[in-house]
Amino acid sequence: MAALLLLGACSSPYKTAPINDPVRAEHVADLARTMVGTPYKYGGRNPKTGFDCSGLVYFTHRSVGVTLPRTSQAQYRSTRPVQRDDLVPGDLVFFRLRRSKISHVGIYLGDDRFVHAPSSGKAVRINSLENPYWDKHFIRGGRVF
Prior knowledge:
Layout: H1 2-11, H2 22-34, E1 45-46, E2 50-51, H3 53-63, H4 72-77, E3 80-82, E4 92-95, E5 104-110, E6 113-116, E7 125-128, H5 132-137, E8 138-143
Antiparallel strand pairs: 1-2, 3-8, 4-5, 4-8, 5-6, 6-7
Helix pairs in contact: 2-3
């Protein structure tokens, strides 16, 4: 069984951390928290020029040696599903803001809070999953580590 898991990991186009790496996941959450206030920029993926939502996720993970896809939909597909009650800091949180596709992603911080780059004219911020807007659009969590 372990050999099959290793073979499957070799075929993945993305580098992944060991299955259970809570230290790396915590580091992602901590790094994302330091990005609060960074301006939103469509297509942005670094703190010097700004972030869009998936760019923030891409940057924080790349900073700990993990390469994820660049878009929220591809990030959604590349993570293991996690129910809201099972989220831990460093997990991703996915939202459907439009009818048919995943269109927003953030990084879970704990206590129902997540950090994300919301939209044009705004900056990276922390919001609550309990906020009626985010609660309504939440689809699922995703685990990288």
